[in-house]
Fold:
Amino acid sequence: MTGVPGTTTASPPSVAPLPEGLDTPALVVDLDVVERNARRMADGALSRGVALRPHVKTHKSVALARLQLDHGARGITVGTLGEAEVMARGGIRDIFVGYPVWADGPKAARLAALHSIVDLSVGVDSPEAAAQLGAAVTGSERPLRVLVEIDSGARRSGVANADAALRVAMAARDVGLLVIGVFTHGGHGYRTLGAGPAAAKDEIRTLAAAADALTAGGFSVEAISAGSTPTGLHAAGGPVNEIRPGTYLLGDRQQLALGAIPADGIGLVVAATVVSTAVALDQVVVDAGAKTLTKDRAAFLEGFGMLPAYPDAVIERLFDYHAAIRIPSGTPAPRLGEVVTIVPNHVCPVVEQFDEFMVSRTGTIVGRWPIDARGRSR
Amino acid sequence: MTGVPGTTTASPPSVAPLPEGLDTPALVVDLDVVERNARRMADGALSRGVALRPHVKTHKSVALARLQLDHGARGITVGTLGEAEVMARGGIRDIFVGYPVWADGPKAARLAALHSIVDLSVGVDSPEAAAQLGAAVTGSERPLRVLVEIDSGARRSGVANADAALRVAMAARDVGLLVIGVFTHGGHGYRTLGAGPAAAKDEIRTLAAAADALTAGGFSVEAISAGSTPTGLHAAGGPVNEIRPGTYLLGDRQQLALGAIPADGIGLVVAATVVSTAVALDQVVVDAGAKTLTKDRAAFLEGFGMLPAYPDAVIERLFDYHAAIRIPSGTPAPRLGEVVTIVPNHVCPVVEQFDEFMVSRTGTIVGRWPIDARGRSR
Structure:
């Protein structure tokens, strides 16, 4: 590794050899690893007595959501109504939209339709959004369940404190919504290496205060839900009775660097072909560009992904369909035409670029699974 | 504007009001602007006596490719065989794959099938890739046409000099390919503000040398092709007889900052809704995150896109489905529930995130057009 200050120098992860004959770029899922990841997280949640409600935005696949449910997840989390619709059509019944849905216009009708066919719950962080949700489901046979979002340090969405959580809960009750709990996302656990456990403490403290405020206000607080892969099981315990990690199932370079997944936890790689070596001796170009790897890059990661077989190589520049990879002098380089394995920085937006997973076991393709909710960002 | 050193302080572009009732996030194309952009570039090429072969990776739409052809483009450029397949199925007949295609495995059969149904030409920058191409089309009724790629300063792909171009051309001829010309992509015209015209001079000089070398080697050099939006018409003249700009049709914030498109050239925007204002007074959150805007960001652009109606706002942090927008103190902020217009930094990967364009004229939706080649990155 090149030892750039603040970047990770962890050993490359172990990944299975690629199957033969792939048309590249391709997303290759290692089902053995994925099943192990699913089992580990489910066992960890079970042993701590908390429910697991994985965020399926990572994989957007009905088959992988079912795999998580089969391993013991209670239900799923989604980020958009579109993901909820796809998962509902796939037969999944217990769905939490962990997002401050603004349900006006076309979204009001979509929300009402979903609410009529599955066990839906939705996030809310303002009285105004609560009013929209209430209006959207007016006339439903049963109340729509909501969880109040509280910010625990990510500074993205969610109310700022427990008093504000109670105000939103009361506003929600006033418009006929059923407040069942509180949730947070400790996204600040992604910011620096090793930040996960401290962010988990923030999640626990913040959720506990909000839950207490709601209980004091006469609410029955059924769900106290924390969520991210870096905070993961660190948040499971005490008042928290549900966790919502997502990335743990497939793994990525960022989670590995953060210490949030084990070295054998990379369950998805990108297969790419070296298409050009013409420009310079210290550069190879592969066919996985910005429309495959995306330009997602944490401050502590050098380049736009890593090649486990060429740990010194740096994916330095991305174009739509080209990645220019720098090969430091004296280190091995892949040859023209070689198919290489790339571990992406952040798996979620990479999956979004594809229509299907090539599913493998021990280096053999055993299926092609659709990425059912790809493109469902609304 | 906040005046960060090295970032652009250009005035916000003029964009039409959004149509009512959009489900967000949505991609909204302004057909009046797009037609004007198409006409301007076609007229510019015509008046300089060069062919226009736009790169359709920007929009991936058969309808928009046809619009370009109807305005005078000679054919189209694509970046992948998948894009070529979609455009061929859409009835487009003259297709150049401006990419160093490595045609082994599944790609060999796909290339041969395309070659049998459309007027295909393909890029090549090594004798090895030429050998693969030749093998892929063995037995075809007519030779596959290729253009030798030469690097003019982008340092991405393409041979390093005219001698190397001649060597690749001879290798291609030896395996039965028909060498019809040379091409380059002056991608270094994107690197700094105002770099386009100088990069265009590099394109012209490099292509002229390569064309001379091929002519001296006995080749009939029919196509001398330069290509990018920043170099655009600057490269059209002298030896260059074809240009391949792409982004000019839809426009984006980067091209505007580079001075490569006019202030009225933004033909695509993202519509997004403010879903949360709970965390802090100086922040609003909209529902266009990294899976919509992408994390593409040139060094000279602050944030992940711009809001023409709120020119001081900075799209500071992107999550999968959230954008956290900083509102500097004392400047106006959009209200909760407001639908805002965002001009993306780089339009090409943003289009990739969607299945369809909402097509508008003067603020009214007149159609929904599929993004036919979305996801066809191989």
In short: Residues 1-7 of chain A have pLDDT under 50 and may be disordered. The two ends of chain A are 40 Å apart (CA to CA). Chain A touches chain B through 69 residues (CB under 8 Å).
